[in-house]
Amino acid sequence: MKIKRGDRVVIIAGSDRAEGEERARGKIVKRVDHKKDRLIVQGSNLVKRHIRKGMTYRGERFDRGQIINQENWIHVSNVQLCCPKCGPVKVKIERTELPENPNRPNGPQFFKKRVCKKCGHGFDEKPE
Ligand SMILES: [Zn+2]
To answer: Which of 1, 45, 87, 114 could form a disulfide with 72 if both were Cys (CB 3.0 to 4.6 A apart)?
Structure first.
């Protein structure tokens, strides 16, 4: 999966499909489930959850019973990464060789960077 927590994505399928201005801005990814290839996207795929008084739900304790809107999981195939210039795009992975680091002999040999296929915008900056 090419999407990480904190990325901006555009939903491209389903009833929450982004249209107009939203396609340029995208929405923030809050959680990623790498085993099941699913995401929680801020403010998307809302479902109603019935909360009982005194119940703890997703780390939050509720003093009174209520119905809340909560984001539900979305499959990765329904979103695309949002390039700040182009909107929803496909990305390719660019690998650059890292200089050998004597402190970490078994460390990574390549730095992988996600790049927009249209304009070449890089999504990941190289760590120093
Ligand atoms: Zn782009």
So the answer is: 45
Residues with CB under 5 A from ligand 1 (ion): 83, 85-86, 116, 118-119, 121
- Let me know if domain 8-116 sits in CATH 2.30.30: yes
Beta strand segments in the chain, E: 8-11, 27-33, 38-41, 46-51, 56-57, 60-61, 66-71, 74-75, 79-83, 87-89, 91-97, 110-116
From 75-79, 94-98, 116-120, the region with the lowest mean pLDDT:
94-98
Distance from the alpha carbon of residue 80 to the mean position of ligand 1, in angstroms: 12
Q: Cα(50) to centroid of ligand 1, in Å?
A: 41
Domain boundaries, the chain: 8-116
Question: pLDDT confidence of 128, banded at 50, 70, 90?
Answer: low
